Every structure is written in C-alpha cells, then in structure tokens.
Amino acid sequence: xxxxxxxxxxxxxxxxxxxxxxxxxxxxxxxxxxxxxxxxxxxxxxxxxxxxxxxxxxxxxxxxxxxxxxxxxxxxxxxxxxxxxxxxxxxxxxxxxxxxxxxxxxxxxxxxxxxxxxxxxxxxxxxxxxxxxxxxxxxxxxxxxxxxxxxxxxxxxxxxxxxxxxxxxxxxxxxxxxxxxxxxxxxxxxxxxxxxxxxxxxxxxxxxxxxxxxxxxxxxxxxxxxxxxxxxxxxxxxxxxxxxxxxxxxxxxxxxxxxxxxxxxxxxxxxxxxxxxxxxxxxxxxxxxx
Length: 290
Ligand code: NAP
Known about the structure:
Layout: E1 4-5, H1 8-30, E2 35-41, H2 45-60, E3 64-70, H3 76-88, E4 94-97, H4 107-113, H5 125-132, H6 141-152, E5 161-165, H7 172-179, E6 187-191, H8 198-203, E7 207-210, E8 228-231, E9 235-236, E10 242-243, H9 248-251, E11 257-258, H10 265-284
Parallel strand pairs: 1-11, 2-3, 2-4, 5-6, 5-7, 7-8, 8-11
Antiparallel strand pairs: 9-10
Helix pairs in contact: 1-10, 2-10, 6-7, 6-10
This protein binds NADP nicotinamide-adenine-dinucleotide phosphate.
NADP nicotinamide-adenine-dinucleotide phosphate binds near residues 166, 195 and 234.
C-alpha cells in the first residue's frame, strides 16, 4: 500500500487565502488591521529564518507586522520591559517571542508577561491552562495545524486512538489536550522517552503523531497498516536537508496517509499563527472570533 500524502503546503495556501479575505473584510467593515509583533533576541540563524518567514506571511495576509530584533546581550529586564510596551500598544494584537532565547535569558517569565489577549503563540501558562481545562482561548499553533491537517485528510478523531510521541509544552502536551477536547474526542496516549515498548504503543494507534526531533525514530514496523502518520519533527540530515522523525519512504508503504517534511506540518504552524492573530484582533474589540 502506498500512503496518501497530506499536502500541508496546499492546505496552508488555502487557509491563508481565507485569512487574507477575512482581514480585508475586517479592514473594510471595521477599520481594523490585525497586528503581530515578533521579538527576536540574538542572531540564531534558524530563528532568523523562522521570524522572517512569519513576517512575510503576516504581511501577505494584509496584517501589520512589526519585527523587533534585540542584541544577544539583552537583559531579562529589558526584554520584559519590551513585552510590557507591546502589551500596551493598541496596534499590536499578537505578541510572539521567538524561542530559543540566548542561554542567560529565562523564557518562562517572559511568556508569563504576555497579555493573554495577545498570546497568539499560546505559550503563556494561562493560555495552556485554559486549554487543559477544556475552555481554550488560543490554540498552540503547531497542534492547531495538526488538527487542521487531520481534518483535511478526512481523519475523524472521534473515538480514534492517537499516539502522540513527545510531551513538550510546545507540541505534544497541548496537542494531547486539544485532541481530547469535547468535539475532537480522541483517545490519546502521550508517549515520551520513558515509554516502554514505544513500537507496540504506536502499532495500536489509528493516528501516530511524531514530535520528538529524532531522524528515523518512527519506522514502518511501528505503524499499523492504514494508520495516519503526522510528522512534526524538523531535523537537519547529514546532507543539510530538512527531514522529519518518520522514516518516510518505508512508512509510506504501510500508512494510509502521511505528512511529508518539508511541506507538511511546518507551513500549517505559521498559518495558525496568522489565524490566532486574526482572532485576537477581533476578540480584543468585542467581535466574535469569525
Ligand atoms: P522537545 O522539547 O525536545 O521535546 C521532545 C520530546 O520527545 C520530549 O518529550 C522527549 O521525551 C521525547 N523524546 C525524546 N527522545 C525520545 C525517544 N527516543 N522516544 C520517545 N520520545 C522521545 O522538542 P519539541 O520542541 O516538542 O520539538 C519536537 C520536534 O518538532 C523537533 O524536531 C522540532 O524542531 C519540531 N517542531 C516542528 C514544528 C513545525 O512547525 N513543524 C514546530 C515545533 C517543533 P522526555 O520528555 O521524556 O525527554
């Protein structure tokens, strides 16, 4: 069997076009232009690429994008003061602090300072907690993108057994909370580095989501024939090319549907950041989400 490829790039284009239409309508009908501020500290090349990508996508959607680049030796107090200014700035609906921060800066207090009404990256513990208690404000961008990809692939999560491999606060944990919300109704196993017999756990899944950061972790033997496989991993191979956590060629022979890397989850993560920014702009002015 050869798996159907779930095309994240095509879905992202479609969703971004819809977001751009919604932004144009918001401007025309209410004079509102959603604004996103992205804060980049230091000169990590990968972070520069990600922030650049988010900036271009924000502008392409018709939103206002502000990029704030701070030097490597920025103090915790200065970074926190900047977040305070952005919280108070009415032109800014969403605030994103690109991770990782330089080693001597602590991300946690910075995330905690972001006004929950502008927390479009959903990393403030308040936002994560709202999702955990089943009453979410903003959904974490990558998990939100995974849910959209499953929907596009026609995968019904209701009653499905989803194994999420990786329990980070960025991906695995919020994804498991999202999938178990009423309406999504999946039965979730959240696996991690201490999970016993990961292969057997994965083989029992209708859907496997790999969010670890290890090339080739998910092999064909770990996937039940016909299961859906979502690869969140982004790793650099020896040849410098981007690869996921899934042994793509072998798993595609077994799975029913699979996301590629690149062109799967990645484009959807940026797209859902735009969606959250649009929603933040509406909610902050008392308009319904959409
Ligand atoms: P992370 O914070 O490093 O977490 C990795 C998780 O994987 C941890 O929970 C860890 O378990 C688990 N793990 C490590 N080795 C394992 C093993 N052998 N078997 C089972 N679980 C194992 O990583 P992250 O931030 O979640 O990112 C994960 C991957 O997704 C990375 O490649 C990252 O680049 C990528 N990513 C992609 C996107 C996108 O948009 N495509 C977005 C975010 C992240 P313990 O908790 O037990 O240590």
